[in-house]
Automatic annotation (TrEMBL):
Residues 3-263 form the Protein kinase domain. ATP binds at K36. Belongs to the protein kinase superfamily. PROSITE patterns: PROTEIN_KINASE_ATP, PROTEIN_KINASE_DOM, PROTEIN_KINASE_ST. This is Protein kinase domain-containing protein. Keywords: ATP-binding, Kinase, Nucleotide-binding, Serine/threonine-protein kinase, Transferase. GO terms for molecular function: ATP binding; protein serine/threonine kinase activity. Coiled coil: none annotated. GO terms for biological process: signal transduction.
Length: 320
């Protein structure tokens, strides 16, 4: 494979990311990619990332991996994986470009894409385990994709009782602290923390001390939850309340959250308006039919039995 390492795009604790220019590119290999490299001796996380990306396959919401190789540079052996290049860098970088926080319209759109990505990952049987703004990449078309699968794991894979420490303390879920459980609800909790950070420019937990244990105790024990921003819309607050639920079994899943009005796109909104108009005008589609279909499609299991079309709260949510 012929390629040239370009400038540094980013670096983490176990790898660096550079631009890479490919000189003998084939059809399924773009001429410009990102290359993520790590010393071969410490490359187990990068190898895990490559394996998981291969098993996940292609999704518009997950960063693409084109292949891997080994190089010998400056007396060191490196393991490299070639990833789709994201011109916008990470969502964490984007926050700086917007002066520290993003407008709610953008937060809604990015959240929808991240949720689509998480739904795909969870349905394929994996958990990302490190959702945070530094691991979300902004593409040329302003779509975002999930990256950094180094800590990802297969769902329900037992850890032989070993204490694990995956992810970043600010984003860690209560069940990971209390029971060492890292399943799909942990990614949803972390998404909630990322969403608060996108909107406020500050971490979801107000923590300035150096004692990380005191933060972990606050997250894991007692009733305290991350602060829900006052300036958020009603839909935004409701959305976060579905996420910041300490019991992982009661926390909404990616699939359920994608049906929440906070992440509805313009297509959904006009479809719903159309359906409302249809249901209130004499037409072959009866109000009763519409109402049932609607309940199933857009509500949590607890809410499915409520006649939503006639519900004031619902009508308010639709008119956003
Ligand atoms: N930073 C980390 N990964 C990246 C990628 N694939 N493209 C651009 N910047 C990055």
């Amino acid at each position: 494979m012929n390629w040239v390492r370009g400038h540094l795009l980013g670096s983490g604790s176990f790898a660096t990311v550079n631009l890479a220019t490919h000189t003998n590119n084939s059809d399924n290999f773009p001429s410009i990619t990102a290359v993520k490299s790590s010393d071969t001796c410490y490359s187990h996380l990068l190898q895990n990332e490559k394996q998981i990306l291969d098993r996940l396959g292609s999704s518009p919401y997950i960063i693409n991996c084109f292949g891997d190789d080994h190089t010998f540079e400056d007396g060191e052996d490196y393991y490299n994986i070639f990833l789709e290049y994201a011109v916008g860098g990470t969502l964490f970088d984007q926050l700086k470009n917007y002066g520290g926080k993003l407008p709610e319209t953008l937060v809604r759109r990015y959240t929808r894409s991240i949720l689509e990505g998480l739904k795909y990952v969870h349905e394929k049987g994996f958990v990302h385990c490190d959702v945070k703004l530094q691991n979300i990449l902004v593409m040329e078309d302003d779509n975002v994709k999930i990256s950094d699968f180094g800590l990802a794991k297969e769902k329900s894979l037992k850890n032989d009782g070993k204490l694990e420490c995956r992810g970043t303390p600010m984003f860690i879920s209560p069940e990971a602290i209390n029971d060492n459980v890292y399943e799909s609800p942990a990614d949803i909790w972390a998404l909630g923390c990322a969403l608060v950070e996108m909107f406020t420019g500050k971490p979801a937990w107000n923590f300035s001390g150096s004692n990380i244990w005191s933060l972990l105790i606050r997250i894991g024990v007692g009733e305290e939850l991350p602060l829900i921003p006052d300036e958020f819309s009603q839909e935004g607050k409701d959305f976060l309340q579905k996420i910041f639920v300490k019991d992982p079994l009661k926390r909404w899943t990616a699939d359920m959250l994608l049906k929440h009005p906070f992440v509805w796109d313009d297509k959904n909104i006009s479809l719903v308006k159309e359906l409302i108009n249809e249901s209130s005008s004499p037409s072959p589609r009866t109000h009763f039919n519409f109402s049932k279909e609607f309940e199933y499609d857009f509500c949590s299991p607890e809410e499915r039995l409520q006649p939503l079309v006639e519900d004031q709260r619902f009508v308010r949510l639709v008119r956003i």
